[in-house]
Amino acid sequence: MASSAASSSPSSLPQKRTVESILEHLRSGPPSSPTSSPTRAIASQSQSHSHSQSKKKARKAKVPDYLTTSSQAAGPSSAPLKKRVLSTSTRLYVKRVKIDREKAEEIRKLAASLGAVTTDLEHANVIVTDSWSQPRAKAGLRPQLYQEQAHVVHSSWLEDTAEQGIYLGIDKYRVLPAPTSSDAFADSSKFSRGDGDTSIELATTDEEKTDSATDGESDLSHSLQTSPEMRLPLRGLWFHILPAKLDKAGVETIKARLLALGADIVPQENADAIISQAATAARVKPFLKEKEQPKVPLLQARWLDEVETRQAWVDPGDRYVVGFPEQIKLTWDKIKQLSEQNRTPPSGSLVAQRVLTAAAPDPATVETGSGAAAAEALGPPDADEDEEEPPALWSREGSEAGSPERSVAEEQADEGGESLDDYAYKNSFFACERPSPLRCINQELVDQLLILQKQRELVGEKRSALSYERALSSIKAYREDLSKNPVAAASIRNVGPKISSLIKQFYQQGNIAEVQQIRSDSALRVMMDFMELYGIGPTTARELYNQGCRNVEDVIQVGRSYGTKLDVRECMKILPDLRQKIPRAEVESIATTVMNKANELLPGCLHTVCGGFRRGKPASGDVDIVISHASHDPGTVCRKLIEALKSEKLVTHVIGLSNMTDSDDHSHTRHNVAELVFKAKATKTNPAPIHRRLDLIFCRREVYGACIVGWTGSTMFERDIRRWAQKKLNWKFHNYGITDRETGELIETPQEIDVFRELGLDWIPPQFRNCDA
């Protein structure tokens, strides 16, 4: 867990790449102990397990589910479920202060009867105690538990929740302040650095850099400093890292992050400031040479997150280590003074300029296009300044999910095109009958219900998750403002009494109480990170968490996600790229490149870019392209196109190739799916292209329409169109065609409109099929 905390991701892509390069450089020295980090330990266990399997078939050990099953360590609590007021989002531990074991057991049984999970201390996100005294509540608890992980509340919260029959907010029942863990469902793009950021950047002039570095180092520093996305805000400062709560890999990661920001790493006695993963004096003191009162500021490692996000100096504020009331504070004047001194780092230091130079990739080995494209990528930045160019596709701001780019539906409405009002509202049980925009009038409520749905999904409560998913989908299509009349929600299809009561709570109190607790659940935050990876769904994410994985590196090391297809080192190399959102302009550019090559090989290819892009999302996780040819088999088109893209080094990795068909159907439904990693050639407007996920779907012309509908989504729209086909017509709908369940006859759908016509549904354009939250 220490490694996970230590390696929180920097906000900018250049920063991430630099940290990775520095880590690789630092680790290229003497080999580390094989047990020096959790990820290496997991890898070692995995290799040992593989070796033992070659001798005999290993029995799969049953891993306890800490998220859904009450722990025996918490006591023998079991009680019949009275009414599900709480849920598995409440993992509760009872801390006794004045009460005896019998009374504590009564509290556990009450919690279980309300639907909560009673668990051990280490896995709890709510600690219930019988005392309002803060010192007594803290006694025997690790500070990290109540500072970062669990809400500590009085037992009267459970009693009042049971009495009122609804999940009550815990703020007025708090014994200790709320934990400071970040929002598990926060949109990271809200914290990205914008053009309006006025934070002061600690910087020196190019002349000063030249005086203190070799020519090569100066060139590198200049290129990094003048980059619009990456700067050196800590240049000239000396830091020391304490190993408290950190393993060797964790210390290496913080070193790399500091060096990437321009700071030098020095011995403790020479440091301008000390960085610690631990946040309290009790944890820090054993590692300090000055035991009583340190002579330099002690900063929590979380402060680095803010510096990386802003790419500029950030006042530490409350990010100092707690428990040293008289410690020196870092002021802007002090920082400026230190950065302007021409100091020689002491022996044994890691000097940022030298490390950055050594870790920088050799320009000769950088993947660029050939000929003119390569010359443009490596050419001077001011060439052809007068030429008008489109915005760079690779800019970080444009890649974020919260991009200011408007949805397709909004743009079309402004231009006099289709608007939501052109399509009648239907209060239907089926999402495929309800036009739904990308953002709706009741979006804040939908977003809160989504968090409840995701939590149920992550812990394996499929029926409950589906109930929330159907309810929020119906609300998404509703066109009246529920804040003016919350009771109207009860008349919306798929919205039952329980969700109606939550809607009432939302509009009365401004939030849903349970949602506020879920947001701070560190376990859910970890699993949400896992689900960003290819092939990781809720069930696998939960299994990985219960097995001890706490970051994406752990997942790759145990051979899940891309780790099943690629070498671990290769996975870690491309993973930061693949987790970046793809802006619309770049999706179009990738599609143009792919289809130009397809039509060059086999003229007459028909294609549609599907997924969230087609529904109007400003950014996508991958690029989905459905391709068909009138006279060539899908397999032939697939094979020739992928070979061509690989030969031109546009496809760098093939993650998966599948020949998909329904075993009950004939060959006319067969289609091929290629899961690829795409990397564009470097150009003047995109000199540093990154890896992108690309899914190519090849189908026959007679099922092209069904394939487009299936791959356009959204999930709930596709699920309900499948349900509609079965219930209304006894047909089977899949994204590879529609067939009659009784006869097996193919219902031809060469165009998308044919799907709606054959199923007896009114046409809904793609931008109004956003039936998920």
From TrEMBL:
Listed cofactors:
Mn(2+)
| InterPro entries from the UniProt entry | BRCT_dom, BRCT_dom_sf, DNA-dir_DNA_pol_X, DNA_pol_B_palm_palm, DNA_pol_lambd_fingers_domain, DNA_pol_lamdba_lyase_dom_sf, DNA_Pol_thumb_sf, DNA_pol_X
Record field: compositional bias (Basic and acidic residues): 17-27
What EC number(s) are associated with this protein in UniProt?
A: 2.7.7.7
Q: Which CDD domains match?
A: NT_POLXc
Disordered: annotated span: 1-82, 186-226, 362-418
Tell me where in this chain the BRCT domain is found. 82-175, 229-321
Q: Which biological process, per GO, is one annotated for this protein?
A: double-strand break repair via nonhomologous end joining
Which intervals carry biased composition (Low complexity)? 1-12, 34-51, 371-381
Keyword Transferase part of the UniProt annotation: yes
According to UniProt, the reaction catalysed is: DNA(n) + a 2'-deoxyribonucleoside 5'-triphosphate = DNA(n+1) + diphosphate
Record keywords, A-Z: DNA damage, DNA repair, DNA replication, DNA synthesis, DNA-directed DNA polymerase, Lyase, Nucleotidyltransferase, Transferase
Task: List the Pfam families hit by this protein, alphabetically.
Answer: DNA_pol_B_palm (PF14792), DNA_pol_B_thumb (PF14791), DNA_pol_lambd_f (PF10391), HHH_8 (PF14716)
Protein's name according to its UniProt entry: DNA polymerase lambda
Q: Which Gene3D superfamilies match?
A: 5' to 3' exonuclease, C-terminal subdomain, Beta Polymerase, domain 2, DNA polymerase beta, N-terminal domain-like, DNA polymerase, thumb domain
Query: From what superkingdom does this record's organism come?
Result: Eukaryota
GO terms of molecular function: DNA binding; DNA-directed DNA polymerase activity; lyase activity
Q: Tell me the SMART domains matching this sequence.
A: POLXc
In its UniProt entry, the species of origin is given as: Tilletia horrida
Q: Where is the composition biased (Basic residues)?
A: 52-61
Listed under GO cellular component are: nucleus
Top EC class, one word: transferase
